[in-house]
Amino acid sequence: MHITGNHQMARIVRHNDESVREGYMRNGGKEVKLFTSALKAFQCNNRIVMAQRKHLDDFLRGRIIGRLECGRTLLEVSEELGITQSVISRLWQRFQDDGNVSRCYSTGRPRVTTPNEDRYLAVTAKRNRRSTASYLSRQLSSATGTTVDECLQSEDITRMDWPAYSPDLNSIEHVWDMLGRRIAARQPPPTCLPELRRALLDEWCNIPQDQIDNLILSMPRRCKACIASSGRHTPY
């Protein structure tokens, strides 16, 4: 590319010490400066724009991984192949994680639920035809513990393994059992929600306080029995 005239040259590129040291070409007494670094940057940017317009094929992905495995830097591979460093970095990270560089084809949004969770949602929706999306989301979170798991992972909290056969030492379970037995013994039994609500309040007030006190006082014995059985079944 030949450019004549100092004014035209000034419009295109700023003069500085590095550009002056790039070298000169003499042509008919006129100086034509070769700005190799600027030309190289232009070519690289042009390739980057072209590469961003289409997905990388498997062959090009292999070339990228091959160069990186040979010790080339992200910047060197980016300049050679005309691909942004962020794309190369993601591809390299994926290759290190699972050893796969092929593009995964999918349609629509990625799945966020498992088949078991899908079945649970279907059953819940059939039981309550008026269920909303937010209601189903809350039910799924409470049933699977997804929200709790995500919170623990985000806070880097290690959770102890708790086997399924471990006893529940929550004493309120026994209080609920007392209340349930009292409701079941009522004659006639409640036939609607308002009657059930009134019956629960009545029976809750009728539970003797000494039963609650005895339950609270039994907690040390329950804890000792649980420790002695290594977290397995206890007589309580």
TrEMBL record:
GO terms for molecular function: nucleic acid binding. Its main location: nucleus. One of its GO terms (cellular component) is nucleus. Gene3D superfamilies: Ribonuclease H-like superfamily/Ribonuclease H, Winged helix-like DNA-binding domain superfamily/Winged helix DNA-binding domain. It is found in: Nucleus. InterPro entries: Homeodomain-like_sf, RNaseH_sf, WH-like_DNA-bd_sf. This is Tc1-like transposase DDE domain-containing protein. It comes from Araneus ventricosus.
